[in-house]
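Re-running AbrB family transcriptional regulator to confirm reproducibility after the cluster update. Everything else is unchanged from the original entry.
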Amino acid sequence: MPTRRKERVIGEYETRKIGNSLVLTVPQKVGVPEKSKYLLVAKSDGVLEYKPVESNPWLNGEFDDIDFDAEIAQLNDIDTGVAVGKESVIW
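Result of re-run:
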């Protein structure tokens, strides 16, 4: 059974002009961290939808503290050998 997304009304806000852009305020009580990235989708019915941009853990530092060599050693059966066959193609 599909779950419904809980929506809550935060308030009503007006756009304001800053430079050549219009800005909508995001109040602190919503809990959005500073410098968060969002994708803006303008729907055909006039609705503006902001969706959080997925962060790449390989680039954002989330995996910086993981010792991948230790993880591979712990698995003990991972194949890290040399390529044999067609996967070793020189272009």
